[in-house]
Amino acid sequence: MKSKPFNPRIIALALLVATATGIALFPTLQKAQATHNTHTTHVVPQQSHRIEVVFVLDTTSSMSGLIQAAKEKIWSIATTMASAQENPDIKMGLVAFRDRGDAYITRVFDLSEDLDSMYASLMDFRAQGGGDGPESVNQALYDAIHRISWSNDSNVYKVAFLVGDAPPHMDYHNDVKYPVTLAAAASKGIVVNAIQSGQHEYTRPAWQQIAALGHGEYFQVEDSGNTVAVSTPFDEELSKLAAELEDTRLYYGDEATKKAQQAKLDANARLREELSSEALARRDTFNATASGKANLLGESELVDAIASGRVELDEIKQENLPATMQAMAPEKQMEVITEQAQRRDQLQQEIKRLSESRSNFIKEKVAAEGGAEDSLDEKIYRAVKDQAAAIGLTYDSDSASY
Predict the structure, then answer these.
(1) Which terminus has fewer CB within 10 Å in the chain: N or C?
(2) Is the pTM here over 0.85, yes or no?
């Protein structure tokens, strides 16, 4: 077989990636490493730490305050989970529920690394229905355990957070009761935590039992979630730089792939248009982490594919390249990719610096106001920190990310 000649532009790009610092987007380490001795050669897989988290959210009218808090805080929760030393891959899913007779009983959004698209779905939810006490908690938990594509890997931290303010209907026929479902969850290695919104006494016993049977934790928050919401002087600049970072993405693939990519770009555009600068800052902080890379780039991103060595440029069909690059000579195509890689790395460094300044500003403000021990942010962080230790995830921070 004839070997391919050296391409100096590829070598230059590889050197750029190898020397990138901080939270560089182009890790060069492979997910497996070869171990060799004089007698045998074998491959030892390198463990990738992962988190799969599903929020099981009551979306009836009494939950309007906490639903709004979830919309505002889902990114900082993701950043909190990403703050482990091991930079875990993170997938999120959602089960929204109401009750029989409402517009829907459950709506299920499967686990995905594309948090933007999941969040765009969350934005559509409005608190409606309910009002008669118990809700379809049994169905919601059943769907969370059985209709979500959980990994079979025992080394993955699999966790569900049930969030609501009313107990389950235990009088419905053809309804799998939560003790049965929670036994199934345990067999799959899924931890179930129960977050009670409000202080209704009739809800607490059921929520506490769900947490106990789910090998998780029970905690109560106010209807608003007691979340930490702080505007900072860095939010707008962070959002501006993050938008520039997103403009460095170049996508390749066939028509079906490009259609999926366009759906992600549409979700991105919607978030940019509808989110507050504070919420965008939370999202952009998460995207700047190693764990946020998958959400930022999506599938078949050309710059990362070439820089990481997963794909060679001459292996991609011309018609599958970005439209703006198809008529270019190969040397010019590589020049464009190299320029985008350099710009991306510069932006990453600036975003990292601003994110750290933003985090320090918020923590100082929270400390000056007496701390946030009773907030939804802190209670979720404490649960994650304790439970994820079982699979080797290490969290050193004294507090959640806000």
Answers:
(1) N
(2) no
* DSSP symbols for 114-146: -HHHHHHHHHT----S--SS-B-HHHHHHHHHH
Report pLDDT digits (tens) over 317-328: 999 999 999 999
What DSSP character marks residue 201? T
Taking the C-alpha atoms of residue 205 and residue 213, their distance in angstroms, rounded to an integer, is 12
How far apart CA 95 and CA 74 sit, in angstroms, is 14
Tell me how far apart the alpha carbons of residues 52 and 39 are, in angstroms, rounded to a whole number: 40
Which CA distances in Å does 258 have to 218, 320, 325? 43, 9, 15
DSSP state letter for 188: T
Compute the distance between CA of residue 186 and CA of residue 113 in angstroms, rounded to an integer.
Answer: 24
In percent, how much of the chain has pLDDT > 70? Answer: 86
pLDDT surpassing 80 at residue 208: yes
Structure tokens at 246: 């997103």
Is 189 a residue whose pLDDT tops 50? yes
Q: Which amino acid is at 241?
A: L
CB 56 within 8 A of CB 141: yes
The number of CA neighbours under 13 Å toward the Cβ of 259 is 3
pLDDT in tens, 25-69: 333 333 333 333 333 333 334 457 999 999 999 999 888 888 887
Residues 6+ apart with CB under 8 A from 319: 326
Q: What residues form DSSP beta bridges with 251? A: 301
List the beta bridge partners of residue 44: 33
pLDDT at residue number 18: 41
368 contacts 301 by C-beta, under 8 angstroms:
no
Alpha carbons 215 and 51: distance in angstroms, whole number: 17
